[in-house]
Design a protein that fits this description.
Rossmann fold, porphyrin biosynthesis, 2 domains, heme biosynthesis, Ferrochelatase, alpha/beta, cytoplasm, Ferrochelatase_N, four-stranded parallel beta sheet
């Protein structure tokens, strides 16, 4: 019988906070055609000709504010998830990053070295997007075909609306909510609007109204819809009225039109609308990272307070909480069992 294994895949991180390491990481990340989807020549001109001239130094300073003695928070947390999962499953568990090391290829190689020939690959993204789930699967398939043609890979699909995940996220948020708050803001990573249309093979997406319709064919590929459905399910589970919540999108890059509303602009303006006590959570991420610990916890807090806000409470990601490990285990075992059925 073929030996099975699990590969947990997250975004990735620079090797260190040194400017050159950050530059190397950003080059690989931003030159991915599913992140910046311009033709290669225009992408290279933008990334290597403009962005990498100034952004690495600024990003390096930001990374320094969140870096731990063990290294990058995202890598450290993903390793903790790996170790906890390994204790509750009876197959090898390794990690890989879409960008930088340990790479997807490194992760697969470690499993193969242990005799594994059937891999459950888990992209650690609740919602589907071209720049997250899709690029992980495409990269893994590229590596598999080139280096490991005899290996079979079974991919875990986005779990944004799975009841076990919603229960886990809702319980985690509810435990961490402050006693008094005016609004709970759900800040998801943003994507350019054109990505929504590009990832829709049904060609039925209309950002103006289809997200709120039931059973539109595009929903299984629509990042925006999935973010709203996650929010809707979580607040129903917590028991919060919709008017006490906000959905927004962060981390936009460049001058292209990204899905709205924007988190930074929202944080600056909501105090003028009477929101003085804010709780905020980032459910596009399962592990705390630069975008949550620095962009939201530090920059976001400053934006909110400068706008007139008083109390800002960031709710951490699921990270290595035991209840999240339980969800990861269940989702992985579902896919492991599919190998037995073939």
């Amino acid at each position: 019988m073929d030996k099975k294994g699990i590969l947990l895949v997250n975004l990735g991180s620079p090797k260190s906070t040194a400017v050159n390491d950050v530059k190397e990481y950003l080059d690989e990340f931003l030159m991915d055609e599913r992140v910046i989807d311009y033709r290669w020549i225009f992408r290279a001109l933008l990334v290597q000709g403009i962005i990498l001239k100034t952004r690495p130094a600024k990003s390096a300073e930001a990374y320094k504010t969140v870096w731990t003695d063990e290294g990058s928070p995202l890598i450290v947390i993903t390793k903790k998830i790996q170790k906890k999962l390994q204790k509750v499953v009876d197959v090898p568990v390794e990690i890989g990053m879409r960008y930088a090391e340990p790479s997807i290829e490194t992760g697969i190689q470690k499993l193969v070295d242990q005799g594994v020939s059937e891999i459950v690959l888990f992209p650690l993204y609740p919602q589907y997007a071209m720049s997250t789930t899709e690029t992980v699967i495409e990269k893994a398939e590229e590596v598999r075909k080139k280096k490991f043609p005899k290996v079979k890979i079974n991919y875990i699909q986005p779990f944004y609306n799975r009841e076990i995940y919603i229960n886990c996220l809702a319980e985690s948020i509810k435990e961490k909510l402050p006693e008094n708050f005016d609004v709970l803001q759900f800040s998801y990573h943003g994507v350019p609007e054109r990505h929504i249309y590009k990832t829709d093979p049904t060609k039925t997406c209309n950002l103006n109204d289809c997200c709120s319709r039931d059973n539109n064919p595009s929903h299984q590929f629509c990042y925006r819809h999935q973010c709203y459905k996650t929010t809707e399910a979580v607040i129903a589970k917590i028991g919060l009225p919709k008017e006490k919540t906000i959905v927004s999108f962060q981390s936009r890059l460049g001058k292209d039109k990204w899905i709205e509303p924007y988190t930074d602009e929202t944080l600056k303006t909501i105090p003028k609308k009477g929101v003085k006590k804010l709780a905020i959570v980032c459910p596009a991420f399962v592990s705390d990272c630069l975008e949550t610990l620095e962009e939201i916890s530090v920059e976001g807090k400053e934006q909110f307070q400068h706008g007139g806000g008083e109390n800002f409470h960031y709710i951490p990601c699921l990270n290595d909480e035991d209840r999240w490990i339980d969800v990861v285990k269940i989702l992985c075992e579902e896919k492991l069992n599919e190998f037995y059925l073939v």
